[in-house]
Write a structure and sequence with these properties.
Blueprint: H1 14-24, H2 28-42, H3 53-59, H4 67-76, H5 86-95, H6 108-126, E1 133-135, H7 136-149, H8 157-168, E2 174-176, E3 179-183, H9 184-193, E4 202-203, E5 222-223
Length: about 220
């Protein structure tokens, strides 16, 4: 199945390009190339025009049982229907792209919108209970998985817990029956003070410039 030929992606209409560009703040030329990329991924296992978890994990070279893969997928899947459509795809990629050359020239308002999107989307990674709260134990679980999967410096759960407390002590935690947590406002304030928290979650859009290599380098567009 992995070697079968995938037909060429259809062209997006000008009106669609303009709409997607306005929404994502990505240049129309980038939207076109991302659509080719998306089209290939969405048909890699099932030809249904959307990306499911197995296709997503195949793209980023991660196991479907990976906690990080599942949470990144959940971040993209903003309507929680179990698949990623093209609108969700470009929204997530735009929010976490560090390549300013591929984005529409930003003003202060646009930069604010992108930061809000980045905060909202990233919170979905850590909010395992879908309660608009980041619980300390869930954050420790995600960070432990991240360090293990990316071969970071090995830390014990006790050490990771200390890191979490030192980092999130910037904003006072609240507590309920499930333990200590930070709500969206506290998380937003913490991120604004320490934006480097997003360094581990970046999207490399350089590869889409080489359109003829997209299908071979698909997994390189994500850094997770």
């Amino acid at each position: 199945m992995g070697n079968r030929q995938i037909q060429e992606a259809p062209k997006l209409r000008r009106s669609e390009l303009e709409e997607f560009s306005k929404q994502s703040l990505l240049l129309p030329t980038v939207i076109e190339r991302l659509y080719v990329h998306f089209y290939r991924i969405s048909r890699s296992k099932t030809e249904d025009g959307v990306i499911d978890l197995s296709e997503f994990c195949l793209t980023i070279k991660k196991s479907e049982t990976s906690v990080i893969s599942e949470r990144i997928f959940h971040m993209f899947d903003s309507n929680s229907d179990g698949v990623i459509n093209f609108r969700e795809f470009i929204t997530g990629i735009s929010a976490f792209s560090d390549n300013q050359d591929l984005l529409v020239k930003e003003n202060i308002r646009m930069a604010t919108i992108r930061m809000k999107e980045k905060i909202d989307l990233s919170m979905r990674i850590f909010d395992l209970k879908n309660a608009n709260k980041i619980y300390e134990r869930d954050l420790i679980k995600i960070l432990s998985s991240l360090m293990q999967e990316r071969n970071f410096l090995k830390l014990s759960k006790k050490q990771i817990k200390k890191v979490v407390k030192n980092t999130l002590s910037l904003e006072k935690a609240q507590e309920d029956e499930n333990g200590k947590y930070w709500d969206q406002q506290s998380y937003s304030q913490m991120v604004m003070k320490t934006p480097q928290i997003f360094k581990w979650l970046s999207v490399d859009l350089e590869n889409i410039k080489r359109e003829n290599k997209i299908h071979r380098n698909a997994h390189k567009c994500f850094s997770v």
